[in-house]
Amino acid sequence: MFLSRHLVRELSRHSATPIPALRPLSTVSSLLNSRHKSPSLGDITPESVSSYKANLAAYRQKLKAASAAAAAEAAQAASAAGTVKSLLYGSPAAQKEEIEMEQSYGKVLARGKYVHEIVLHKVKPERVAEYVEMIGEEYPKIAEDKDNNVHLVGSWKVEIGEADTFVHIWEYNGYAGYHQTLNRLSTQKSYQKYATTLPNLITSRTHDLMQEFSFWPTSPPRSLGGIFELRTYTLHPGNLLEWEQHWRRGLEARKNVMEGVGAWFTQVGSLNTVHHLWQFGDLRERQLAREASWSKKGWSETVHKTVPLIGKMQSRILVPLPWSPVR
C-alpha cells in the first residue's frame, strides 16, 4: 500500500494514533529503556507475525477511510470551485489544458520537495553494542530538534546481507534543508563528539543523496512490526526513465500483496542506483507475498521489461532499531 502525502493529514484525523504530516521522531521517549538493544531476526516470533498482520490490516483500514474522506473533501471543494471557475475561465474544454499543465508542474514540484539520504555504516563486530548505544543517543536528538530541517525515516540493522551493517534513511526539506542541517549540527558539541567517535567504531561508510519516485511517496512513521527488505538495483546508464515507467505500472500488481515503505533513485553518490524498501511479517510471509505477485496481471511483464535494464541487484533483510520511526 502506498501512502500519498496528502493522506497523512487525513490519517491523523481518522486514527486513534495520529500520524504527523512530517516525520519528527515522536516515539522516542517511550523507547528510552530499549533503544540501546541491537535487534535481530531472533526477535521475530509467530506471535509477532500475527501482530504484524493485525497492525497492517488496521493501518490499511485507516488508510482506506482517510482516502475516502480526502476524496469526498476534494469533490466538495471541486464542486464549489467549478461554478466559480466556469464563470471566470470559460468552458470545461478551455480549462482542460490548464489542468493538465498544473498536474505536470505538480509532479515536477513533488519530486524536488524532499531530498533523502541513505547512510550505510559497516561496524566493527566487537563495537556493535557501543555503536548502537551511541546512535541511540544522538539520532533521536537530531530528529527531535525542530530547528533541524530533517526527519528520520528509519534506522535498521542488516541481518541477511553484509553482517554488522546498519542502514539509516533521512529526509531533508530539499538541498537547502540538507545544507542548513549539516551546518547547524557542525556547531553542536554532542554531534561533534559523535563525528569524532564514529570512525573508531566502523570500517566503512557511504552516503548517497536520493529522490523519491513521485508515484511512491515515503511512508510516514508507523509501527507494524516484522522485518524489512531493502532491494538495490544498479541500472545501466540512461535507463532510469524507462525503469520508472515500467515500475509505475508493475506496482499496481504488487500493492495489495506487499507493503511498500518507499522507493528512491540516487542523484548524488552511486549514480544509476534505485532502492526499494518493503515490510513483511517474517521471511515466510515475504516468500508468500512475492509468489502471490506472479499471479497478478502485469507483474511478469514488468519483470520481463526491467531485467534487461539492470546491471546488478542486491537484497538485504533488515530489522528496525528500537527508535526507528518506521518499524
UniProtKB/TrEMBL annotation:
GO terms for biological process: mitophagy. One of its GO terms (cellular component) is mitochondrion. It comes from the Eukaryota. It holds the Pfam family NIPSNAP. Residues 117-214, 228-325 form the NIPSNAP domain. Belongs to the NipSnap family. This is NIPSNAP-domain-containing protein.
